[in-house]
């Protein structure tokens, strides 16, 4: 159990044991363990464009942005975005220059299966992703592929989307097509990106498909996504044992800090962690294989008071618990920021909602540094606390940071990005070296500027700037590229003197 091991071996994310030891100072720089890898991330709808090209069908984000431009901050959409469908070779070149070891990207389901179902495979869709993976592997980059980063085929939404239990079977069919199509290549898998985001915001908030049924549909979505994940994982291990690849799920966790040291605030913060993270982590990474107890208790109780004959939170069968429990080789963690939590006072509202069920009130501290995203303040210590909470709560699982990053104003001078990455990586280093958290890699979000969902193109997370007005969607390195590539290439955090050299 204790030997130091690579998580990526022979080009595969082969998770065998802990990455530990080898944490050191070299030339005055703080270094990560030898086999700790750095990567960058994107997602299909956010960068590809080519929304109706070569047999791709409509996704829920195509439909949503076309029918409701007013719900997008700048009234724009991902029809063209950074045009990575045509410019992926350039993107791979950027990554090779950066010196990262892997690329986390996602596959557009409607590009591969235009009907949403496995009756018809769009060969051009498969060709595109095969060429991308080939290009990566040729450049000694590994592929970490997200199967679902929110762009559901509209045809499946028409059947109720993730609220329909049959979706779990359809997802397994889709997953099997993907695994088979790239069987001869070096690929590791993430089933879902941030179920909390697409279930809560998609079925009870502002994201596609724009359903407005929090307290019902978000729970149904979560339920079926968890089933889909568990079933896909078992299928992978049963049908493709020879591939010896890794499969995990990505869950996002902002750190929920109690607003004060009062017992009420501390309890509310723990409830928030269980509702916002445990909802998806508990069934997979805890021994119970089920929803967190506090979530079960609160939603059951609220449902009873609201006179529903049954809880709005569905129940897993014993068989479902069995296949979900332990169904991941690693926990993909997206982390950006921190919140202050206190209990929401007053009676349970007659109107069902996820936030009401959790019964928490969330803010951020005014003096935490702001960024170009309203929701994102710079609180690096929250990262270390989140990692330690995960370590305690789920018996120190293997964690891969699948997203962390910050938006900056347009332009190439992005000292705030450099400062953000440096401070968050120091916190991460402490979590590994001092606290013994088993984190095996760090993925920066994002390689290039992209379509930020309801925030349109107004938020720029890229290490490379994209000039959307230029015909070639020109990518240009920001200052932070020099900084991040030093880290990716050496595995060490540069000193402040080093950083100061190129910042002006
Ligand atoms: C990730 O989610 C996504 O996986 C990725 O696709 C995205 O590009 C990246 O974030 C950067 O945004 O009204 O502005 O306060 C806040 C991170 C919505 C978690 C934003 C939803 C952060 C959860 C809405 N949040 N997101 S508001």
Description:
This protein has 504 residues and is of the alpha/beta class. Helix content is 39%, strand content 15%. The strands form five sheets. An eight-stranded parallel barrel has the order 5-6-7-8-9-11-14-15, surrounded by five helices. A three-stranded antiparallel sheet has the order 3-4-18. The protein has a three-stranded mixed sheet with strand order 10-12-13. The N terminus is likely disordered. The structure holds ligand GBE. The site of ligand GBE has 14 residues, from loops.
Give the SSE map.
Blueprint: E1 8-9, E2 12-13, E3 24-26, E4 29-31, E5 37-41, H1 44-47, H2 60-67, H3 84-98, E6 102-106, H4 109-112, H5 123-138, E7 142-148, H6 154-157, H7 167-181, E8 187-193, H8 195-204, H9 217-239, E9 247-252, E10 255-258, H10 263-285, H11 293-305, H12 318-324, E11 331-334, E12 338-343, H13 354-358, E13 360-363, H14 380-393, E14 399-403, H15 415-433, E15 439-445, E16 464-466, E17 475-477, H16 480-490, E18 492-493, H17 496-502
Residues 43, 46, 193-194, 197, 252, 334, 336, 374-375, 403, 445, 452, 461 line the site of ligand GBE.
The averaged pLDDT comes out at 94
Arrangement of strands in the largest sheet = 5-6-7-8-9-11-14-15
Radius of gyration: 22 Å
Q: How far is the N terminus from the C terminus? A: 46 Å
Low-confidence stretches: 1-6, 15-19
Q: How many H/I helical runs?
A: 17
The helix content, as a percent range, equals 25-40%
Largest sheet: 8 strands, parallel, barrel
